[in-house]
Amino acid sequence: MMKRFQLIQVAAIALVLLGVFGCSKNQDRYEDPPWLGGSSVETLQGKGNYTIFLKLMDMAGQTFTIEKTLNTLFVPNDSSFNAYFAANGIQSVESLSKDEAVQLFTLHVLPNPRSRFQLIYEYVWSELQGPTGEYAGLFFRKPTESTSIPYKEVVPEYYQNASLRGKEITMFTGKKLVPLFSSDYFEDFFGAADGSDYTYMYPDSKWSAVGLNWGNAAVTKQEVRTSNGFIYLIDQVVPPQKNIEEYLREHKDKFGLYYDILQRFANYSTTKVVDKEIQYSKSYDLVSNIAEEQGAFTGNEVRMKDMFTAFLPSNEVLQDYLNRTVLKTYTSIDSVPKVTLYYILQTQLSRSLGLISKISQSYFNSFGDPMILGKNDIASAHMCSNGVIYEMKKVLEPNVFTCVPGRLFFDANYSTFLYAMNQSGMIAALSNPNSMVTLFAPSNAQMEAYGIRYDPIGSRIMFKGKDLKWNPMNTTSMVMFVQDHIYQGVLDDLNTERYVEMASKNFIKVGNGGVQCSENQRYRETVKVAEKIPNDKNGILYNVTIPIKSNYGMGKLIVLDKEVSQFKDFLVTAGFLVPKQLDPITRDTVPNLKFLAEADYWTALIPTNAAMDAARAAGLLPGDKDKEAIKKFCLYHFIRKKVIFDDGTTSGNYPTDLPIVTPTGTDYATLKFTNVLNSLSVEDNSKNVITIDHAKADYLVRKGVV
């Protein structure tokens, strides 16, 4: 008997869940049982002081639907409506248009009858998120049928689509969601249980005595049962809801500067035609799409769980910040790099709701940077349909502005290198306070002289080939160029001579107040420091006189150096060296030492022609036609996976690129290095020892040293 009772109980619960949560549309009513009272409309008519709400329902053409379907109503009384009309310059409910009536009424109704429990806890992801569920009461935003009435907007003159620039177009929005704030929500979201978080976001509202608020309105009486649903009596009218985008557009007196910058990321999409009129929806690229009604995360479930928080500085605060930063070297906002504007905008936007009790204790911005926020930083608050706006007394700065690369975002003379850093994806790695870095930054003029510049029309980095034509720089080359200028650590002393590895895995020579990479060394130029900018968070920025240049490979050195022409010929005979290989991207012909692709680090021991002659005379060289012997001879002169300078730091046995088959597999023949400062000796397997002339050592090349 007990088992049968439990089965019936489970079945009953399942039916309730299907009836309440299983469909997002209003359900048709079944015949009312005789013990149930009147309908929602009849109940309100009987109370007598809800006539304006009933009139609004009728003007919206919703009375029949409400009477014939199951639903939940949030109902303000006549006094609340009269107060709303007076505050908004509305003569009476009759003065509303049909569209205005629909917009307003649909903010006060949800499909299906919902008790308090069913309002707070949603059935999502195939399970009820009840009080003990993983998400509990966090699905607090409730979808309605309300939308903004289509409005006109003039497309900015700098919009990417020239056919729309300056044109007045009709805009529409998605369906609004209204937040249901409950004591359960604040408990589950670790907010303030006393309702102070709520009243901070809604300064003109009261926290409900029953711990339940529908948008800006406090529930004064909950779960009024009717034959076709529930009624919740509320103390205010829920007004038409503007999303953050709409609110900023209508409040340019306060946020116009932020909004103007934001329009550089706007996008207009043609999505529907109404009465032969094209209507557009608005969105934003790169920055958070604050025009999206669903919020930062879209989808039936996740849209109910999160909304934006916009920490927006007023016009005066933002203008002062811009004057102190970007406008010191840039002539106008239009000339500021888009990447700088992006970080300014996005740092003020969060993808989740920021309760004042939480953000004043701990807050991380969109980039994961910890920030300090308090009530003293906030001037006011306003809740929109897709998020809350906090008017800020300061501009929030991301780590990218306050760490090593920060100055580059604000200095017009270094915009090309800034764009290259951004497009190579290196900015985040340079902006971690826990990771020390040294960054060398060449100016725009220096980069252009080297053959690299930024194309603002195509938003891409360009390079000049040997044909003197400008072409898009391929990603691999751009990443290596930027990484050639990054050292993982702090290089505070540029006077002491030494060799260090850059983020590109290429090496530079440090000394005499500057640095050299392979191409710099080849042309006997030194990268000098124009300005040293220590950063108290994570390292040093050096503004330098010329770029660090690594575009000088081992194959090129061997081909160009006539003193090693005999060894070069051996490499060609062995099939290892292609003297003139066409680069498919640059269309330049470059020497290619093919086996270098096997490893990131190499040390080459290249015999001069004199050394080759001596070895030939001693019978140590293979015959010119013995290709296999030539291959082995060549490979024995290359150390794989290790870069060895004659700097006195690296000694020991290291494998060459000559493979040796052993009973256990393939091994590599080794050479023994004895390293004393400026005197490097190498011993082969025959115990022959060669001391390398320091004057002919430490030739930097890409991927290693010769």
In short:
This protein is α+β, with helices and mostly antiparallel strands and 706 residues long. The chain contains 24 helices and 40 strands.
Gross geometry: elongated
Query: Helical proportion?
Result: 25-40%
Specify the CATH homologous superfamily of the largest domain.
FAS1 domain
Cα-to-Cα separation, first versus last residue = 90 Å
Please compute the radius of gyration using only Cα atoms. Answer: 36 Å
The CATH top-level class label of the largest domain: Mainly Beta
CATH architecture of the largest domain: Roll
Count of all domains: 4
What's the tally of helices? 24
Q: Helices, strands, pairings?
A:
Elements: H1 2-21, E1 27-28, H2 40-47, H3 51-59, H4 63-68, E2 69-76, H5 78-87, H6 98-105, E3 109-111, H7 116-120, E4 123-124, E5 127-128, E6 141-143, E7 151-154, E8 168-171, E9 177-182, H8 183-188, H9 196-201, E10 212-214, E11 217-226, E12 229-234, H10 244-250, H11 252-262, E13 266-274, E14 277-284, E15 308-313, H12 315-324, H13 338-347, E16 349-350, H14 356-359, E17 363-364, E18 370-371, E19 378-384, E20 387-392, H15 399-402, H16 415-423, H17 427-430, E21 437-442, H18 444-450, E22 452-455, E23 460-464, E24 470-472, H19 475-483, E25 486-487, E26 498-501, E27 507-511, E28 514-516, H20 518-522, E29 527-535, E30 539-544, H21 554-560, H22 565-573, E31 577-582, E32 589-593, E33 602-604, H23 609-617, H24 627-635, E34 638-640, E35 652-662, E36 665-676, E37 679-683, E38 689-692, E39 700-701, E40 704-705
Parallel strand pairs: 2-12, 8-14, 15-20, 21-30, 33-40
Antiparallel strand pairs: 1-2, 2-3, 4-5, 6-9, 7-8, 9-10, 10-11, 11-12, 13-14, 15-16, 17-18, 19-20, 21-25, 22-23, 23-24, 26-27, 27-28, 28-29, 29-30, 31-32, 33-34, 35-36, 36-37, 37-38, 39-40
